[in-house]
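INTERNAL AUDIT FORM
Audit reference: QA-55
Scope: verify that the stored structure record matches its stored sequence.
Auditor: D.O.
Record contents follow.
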Amino acid sequence: MVAVKSAKVPTMECETEHFLMAQRQLDEIAEEMGLDRELHERLRYPKRALIVTVPVRMDDGTVKSFTGYRVHHDVTLGPAKGGIRFHPEVNLGEVSCLAMLMTWKCALMGLPYGGAKGGIRCEPWKLSIGENERLTRRYTSEIINLIGPDKDIPAPDMYTNEQTMAWIMDTYSINVGHTVPSVVTGKPVSIGGSFGRTEATGRGVAYCARRAVSHYGIKGDSPTVVVQGFGNVGSIAAKLLHQAGYKIVGVSDVHGGIYNPKGIDIPRLFAYLSEMGKVEGFTGSTPVSNKDLLELPCDLLIPAALGGQITEENANKLNCKIVVEGANGPTTPEADLMLHERGIIVIPDILANAGGVTVSYFEWVQGMMHLFWSEDEVNQRLEQIMGRACDQVLELATKSKLSVRMAALRIGVSRIAEAKRLRGLYP
């Protein structure tokens, strides 16, 4: 008899570099907190993942197929919550990674949600408005069995916006036969969106930055700030910190950056940006690359652009006291360890940029109640929840000697683990 060699068990399709990074963070905090092995195993992988083909009639009459994803990491505490991004680098591993981070983020903020994420692999800047709409509506119809106000509530992410959410809401509503505003968040106020949602993520970053400065006793009346990424998140954070008396000395966008050690006039920069479409060339500033911007001397560094910007190659060159992560995953695990060893505080993404999902929760609640709040009410509630979460994380980090990221993960993971323990394993 010929011996049959056992086949090598393949790795899961989601096990890309992005996902393994998130999984490694979980493994580290699980070991530190002595998490039950069975609970740990249940948290290491997504609950469900859907891959769909999205055929779209292009403007020239041809049909082109795109690949779309929707992943639920965990739904122990409530319906899944997470954004939808359109980008050519979207893949199952990236989406699964972000869904896992959303689970911890929602638990950390005390929201009754689990983590989800979705996306379509495409180049949205090459699509016309009509093609973008047809892509969005067909994708919605392909994932419609997963989404719903009690199952999964999408939101905007990279290269999607309130118009995208309006198309998703309309497509879902047409399919169920009645208007369902709470199927998505981040939609226009005129069709059930919430005041303050657009600015929420940047506002949350600013709240966390100010709490961190206070907690760690950064001296000086005008702490200096560098912001990488002057989009929706970075620009709002810079605006609010400038109003609070902080000195913004460097900012950048996709075209390049500017630096002025004496401080940048942020209101004037907004006016310049609206006219020129980029920050480069702003009067009184020195040009600087996105790479060099990260190494400028400052009290606060806010990476609010893409992930993977702070790596083991540049972590030793950072010249700041605190990093506040406005983007998702801007710091690699290797860089995170290096910064911790250098005594540089990192306020992690699952805390710093949680303002968006928090106000998304407010929008969902308002839609379910058919009772809407003023912008001041929204901002006050956001500051209360962000402040509470910041205080809990910073106090635990100080008391336990954990990094701020590990402290945040410990709180989020422990809440999910406790809920799973109480609910048990069915059957």
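Auditor finding: record pair retrieved intact. Residues 200-352 form a domain with the Rossmann fold fold (CATH 3.40.50.720).
Action required: none
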